[in-house]
Design a protein that fits this description.
The structure is a homotetramer of 335-residue chains. The first copy, chain A, is built from ten helices and 13 strands. Chain A has 335 residues and is α/β, with parallel strands linked by helices. Chain A has two domains: 2-122, NAD(P)-binding Rossmann-like Domain (Rossmann fold); 147-308, Dihydrodipicolinate Reductase, domain 2, CATH 3.30.360.10. In chain A, strands 8-9-7-10-13-12-11 form a seven-stranded mixed β-sheet. A six-stranded parallel β-sheet of chain A has the order 2-1-3-4-6-5, sandwiched between helices. The interface between B and D is large, with 42 and 42 residues.
């Protein structure tokens, strides 16, 4: 059994992670922390939390674990990562702290100097399917953001294929409200969200934009730019990104599809829908899958790509990464 | 045109009131106040607010109005009422401050000494249908609570009929989330409410209990006691109360129904459903109606009674009261 | 008073229309028909329907009215229109029958030969703001589709401005479920829609596409093509279209905005948000407004445009058109 | 591995059952049938269905299985049960066919003569906690209805305790929409359910009433009568029953609580909340738990009892019963 610790177990992501790890056949949760709710059990905090005979603590006995999962605010995560790595413990970070390779970009978008810039190069960007070679034995893994996961998985085959794509690619993304976190605020009040639908930070202003464009640059040196429009859906969980890719030449779906099947045919968590079918949230909620549909309209490819933001977009992909890091079955705990 | 002022125009109740008064054929809104949002317009605060060319102020020029509506927290409302009455302005209070006749009961349930106990006797408890005789020319009207309105309207005919009712009457009530107010808190977070349904303060612990029992005592000197169980529904607006009344003798619906038709046959806002039909929220949302269904099961009468908590349960009934106070058509602005 | 008849009063659109006309100061509803529910009143059919002392009939006494509103399935609407026009009655059609000018295009998209192709040229396409000159005295008005209204209102100023727009324009549109009609089917089952979000008929396959492109051609002879992606939202009403317009040259919002203010500054039902603000459904539900937000990102203009699909997208715009046709105040019955 | 067959795998209950059995460590699903969708896989029918490499069939090879689960309409279930029992296969029935012991009562409430009345005496009413002694080795188990499970689990300790309860007990129950089944109808249309809340078949008219009163009679020979009021909630899953029990003498919670702890302290799926806490749907959705809260108000005990209607109210309890029948760990596949 791999002994694991969880930092920040009471947010939505932390809670989902506990739920997954508790049923994981090869993991034992040795401790879980919470600053604000230390001394309580998870069941006290969330009625729906699976019972875990474990009191939330502030202390974090690194010597008791081989791996820690960080569900902490940015900056706090990096500081904890440093301490964990020093103690020889593997870090699976779910915050934004180790996603960007460039400390200045981080400072620009997250309004803070990076607490540990020397670790940025070493961190593996854990979009599992893309990073599978680098993950085994890694000491520091950055779990990608939820929006980026839903957008990058379909863009990877497309950009590496060297097709004549015109700039910009447009990603019109819609997310459930759990993505906005557990802290009550005007924007997550029931009355504000229910019966409503609202765009926010559209264009080039959301923090996930540099993360997506960074990975697009890995896929292709001359990747197009991105217009990224997040919207808030009146549902609990799930992200559906409708992505528009224009080609400067006429291309058919028959030419494009093989690039996807080549990379994803044997992936347990990426599912390509048959032609003509469109992805819905119902395809993915409560699962670690990314489901992708492809439709060609004139010279525009319309991609529908969905994930559960708390699973493949956070806790699930974190566990998937841990499985690969420790060399155990990749799907363990996830199906 | 009656010149009206609104105190506390940015809560859900205040906003609904503005919406109604703005279309009222005989009312001109002279001012609206907001402590936290003074200087803004209502449209700034709520995207959906009807445009009102009126800047929210802190000041309240009593000399400019004949009537004020108080959508303020308790205690604050009473203090403002005193100032308004002193200035000769009629007060329609939507807070709890003038609902209870006994200052000690108020102090017990609202954790504050009443700021103006000398006004309690004078205040008219504005369950309009019941209070219609006392309202014309009244200077101070207490608009009943939302739960009480949904429960008292069907109990009035029943209790005055002198039927052999056994104690306790049970009111299992379900309310939309707007009843919990506009301030974000854990209990009104979208994730907490959506996909959930939750009882709270059941039995004899909700502040509306003494208000309901006080009116039951007006209806009948030996009124039964009440068990009152509020629940929170994942909808924006509406209250449905399912009320159970047991009789110690066998009684038929044919005997009971006339007591209802006698009082309500000509009421514009109380609607008695045909036998066999049950009330739903859809009967009443966005209207000032109270819709009542009666079902006899053995020796138990099951009443389904619904209102829109923001309309007949607050702003609508407040306007209905104002109409009667000023001697204009009771339905003006409300249908 | 204008005497009006309503055909097909029990669908969502018909019901909304009754609600509006019932409060309209210059209209008297003389009759309302329903094939399936003749003999009942609207209140029987919908608990929430405002009481209308009018029995749904099959018969339609044209001699009793000056105008009829057709909330009928396509083809049935055209047949009724012919009879109404013959009887000298003005027709406000809410179906798709008179939106397309070309009978072959109609046959291709609606799988039927047009029942009255000779009327197509005469019919006024009632996007009210665009058609205001043609409407007064018109005998046959086609009310635009809901998606088209939300997309065409922001595209009109843009396309007439002769700006260097590249093809295609992308309209990623999201609609509430009332747009799918009242007939129960798997796709509108509560469990299917709630907690879900689903694209459908994306690209170039939805029936509203030719209608939108036809109007784009009126705005500019060389209008770009359109990619149109409808999605189903788990809300009752409202459409939000996020529209992406790419320019081949660098253009600023300061250059674009005047084209909008010029056309819309004095429009009662088109509202342009201040720079930096984004449109949400909450801006428009239960109103006849179209609210538009403009954001520039690189060389892409991102437009957020919302309407209530049952009001400005159907019944409200139909009444707005009737007001202009009959020369009464355009906002009558609508604010 | 126990080899199992599923009849009627495409309804909500069947789908939930497949999901549970697929992860069950000691069960292999040998076949699953569907009349309407034979030839498809479950994934074709429900996007969210877990992939099961199993084609839905009409044929049912009894020789290949030891146990069958019947998720069929009533009457059809009984006919299939007869065939299965004849073939020596254990039957876990999820329909209403073997819940009532009296064939006449069945005929009265289900409008059909019972197809196999000779089996009624033999069938075990599988409220697992109550029936644990009778289940091992049973050949025919009737899984209780969803409402009955939520109501009977708290009534069992209370009625066996011989307390001075007055008639009637009132059960005000609220259920998610999945309880209404998968067939689209007006009452389950999204627009009808969302933003609404509706009682139905209240008093003594719902089919679950005789089932509940039958078990109450087992708990105590002079059990009180029941008033049972179901309501439809705008959520997918979960039932919360608020139950009112009046005592003719003063009794304290301290006296009542031990009756509950005695029966349930060691039950894995019945959870008694600490005093003062109330049950919510969030306590139970997606779990096999029944969570019970007790509140004393005057001489009335208010019980809040919740289950997931598709799990403990159907598929989960069916599997729990199978586990006990076959002598394997009771929680297998369920936590």
């Amino acid at each position: 059994m791999i002994k694991a610790g969880i930092f920040g177990a009471t947010g939505y992501t932390g809670c989902e992670l506990v739920k997954i790890l508790q049923k994981h056949p090869h993991v034992h949760v040795a401790f879980a922390t919470s600053q604000s709710l230390a001394g309580q059990t998870l069941s006290d905090v969330y009625p729906q939390a699976p019972y875990l005979p474990l009191i939330l603590g502030e202390a974090a006995p690194f010597e008791a674990v081989e791996v820690v999962f960080l569900c902490l605010p940015h900056a706090a995560a990096a500081e904890t990562a440093v301490r964990a790595l020093t103690a020889g413990v593997t870090v699976i970070d779910l915050s934004a702290d180790f996603r960007l390779k460039d400390a200045d970009t981080y400072a620009n978008w997250y309004d803070k100097q990076h607490p540990a810039p020397h670790l940025l190069a070493e961190a593996v960007y854990g979009l599992t399917e893309f990073a599978r070679e680098q993950l085994p034995g890694a000491k520091l893994v950055a779990t990608p953001g939820c929006y980026p996961t839903s957008i990058l998985l379909p863009l990877w085959p497309l950009l590496t294929a060297n097709l004549p794509i015109t700039s910009p690619i447009i990603a019109d993304a819609k997310s459930g409200t759990s993505g906005a976190g557990r802290t009550p605020k005007a924007g997550t009040h029931f009355i504000q969200v229910h019966n409503n639908f609202a765009p926010y930070k559209i264009g080039r202003s959301h923090r996930h934009l540099p993360e997506i464009e960074q990975a697009m640059g890995w896929f292709h040196p001359d990747a197009p730019s991105l217009i990224f429009s997040p919207h808030l859906l009146p549902v609990e969980r799930g992200i559906l990104s409708t992505i528009y890719v224009n080609f400067s030449e006429q291309i058919t779906l028959e030419e494009i599809r093989p690039y996807f099947t080549q990379l994803y045919a044997n992936e347990p968590f990426v599912c390509l829908l048959p032609e003509g079918e469109l992805t819905t949230l119902a395809h993915v909620t409560h699962s670690n899958k990314c489901v992708i549909g492809l439709t060609m309209s004139g010279s525009t490819l319309v991609i529908t790509s969905a994930i559960d933001n708390l699973v493949k977009g956070a806790a699930g992909q974190a566990v998937q990464n841990m499985n690969v890091v420790f060399g155990i079955e990749e799907t363990a705990g996830l199906i």
